[in-house]
Design goal:
Elements (H helix, E strand, L loop, with lengths): L2 H8 L4 H24 L10 E10 L2 E4 L4 E4 L2 E2 L14 H14 L3 E11 L5 E6 L6 H7 L4 E2 L9 H14 L7 H4 L2 E2 L11 E14 L3 E6 L3 E6 L3 H6 L11 E11 L2 E5 L6 E3 L2
Parallel strand pairs: 3-6, 8-9, 11-13
Antiparallel strand pairs: 1-2, 1-5, 2-3, 4-7, 5-6, 9-10, 9-12, 10-11, 12-13, 12-14
């Protein structure tokens, strides 16, 4: 130990400093307790499998030993760059945070499978929990490193993730500081050739309702259309939203947007992804 270190170690803290630190720690403890009481429980109701993680691809996808990929349910994190496109804002931060969470667990996580266990890419669909019960997806969302999403039928824990997102949005964390990229983006200002792709939040007035055999189409100002599949309509109507009665209303939607047939299209899967604005 150096002379400076010995001096510091032997120096007694002042009573005033101790009191200030005690006050700060008490305030932090109270805030944490209030937040925990206000937020819905994110603890798992069951664990279906315990697995070791071999590699993390991005903020919401990892590979387990044996080679299977797992896509986290209920969260969408910014995309890493591909096909010559740069990474989206905070994509690298989300991946690094997931790596750190998994490392904290000794690379072993518990999986709770969704009702739908596999996506169209062959990835396992599951919630991931650390040994202490920490919900990985909710943690990423609460820290502003991802968005809460709902893709039926995998809706377990949705209330918890929505609460986590509400907290991050209120504090302006992470993705909520990048509104110019993620949105809300005004539909009237979007163009199919404007380069807007991937997960976005869009808002605009519904100027026309379209109907096809399988879908209801909400055509917004500009060249943006929201698609609600007829198979999903009962979910919206139970939530008090009837997509067929939204002509003239302003709405805000979230989902993956892409160009098709000379317009931008987005499928809206769940009422939590469609807000009717005043």
């Amino acid at each position: 130990m150096s002379r400076t270190q010995r001096a510091a170690a032997g120096r007694a803290p002042r009573a005033g400093a101790l009191l200030r630190w005690a006050t700060v720690l008490a305030a932090l403890a109270l805030a944490a307790a209030q937040a925990a009481a206000a937020a819905p429980a994110c603890a798992p109701d069951r664990i279906d499998a315990r697995v070791r993680v071999g590699y993390v691809f991005d903020g919401d996808t990892f590979e387990i030993e044996g080679g299977r990929r797992v896509r986290l349910i209920g969260v969408n994190t910014p995309e890493l760059g591909r096909d010559g496109r740069p990474p989206e804002p905070l994509a690298l931060a989300a991946r690094e945070r997931l790596i750190a969470l998994i490392a904290r667990a000794g690379r072993t996580v518990g999986l709770r499978f969704g009702r739908e266990r596999e996506d169209r890419y062959g990835r396992m669909l599951a919630h991931a929990f650390l040994p202490d019960g920490t919900d990985v997806a909710a943690t990423l969302i609460r820290e502003g490193l991802g968005f809460a999403i709902a893709v039926p039928p995998n809706l377990w824990g949705l209330e918890c993730r929505i609460a986590a997102e509400r907290a991050a949005r209120a504090r302006g964390l992470g993705v909520w500081r990048h509104r110019d990229f993620f949105g809300p983006l005004a539909s009237a200002r979007l163009h199919p050739d404007g380069g807007v792709r991937g997960f976005r939040i869009v808002e605009g007035r519904v100027v026309r309702i379209g109907r096809s055999r399988r879908s209801i189409w909400l055509n917004l100002e500009g060249r943006t259309a929201l698609r609600v599949a007829r198979e999903d309509l009962p979910l919206f109507r139970r939530a008090g939203i009837d997509p067929e009665r939204l002509a003239g209303r302003r709405v805000r939607a979230r989902g993956w947007i892409f160009p098709r047939h000379g317009e931008l299209q987005m499928r809206v899967r769940h009422p939590s992804a469609l807000a009717v604005l005043p």
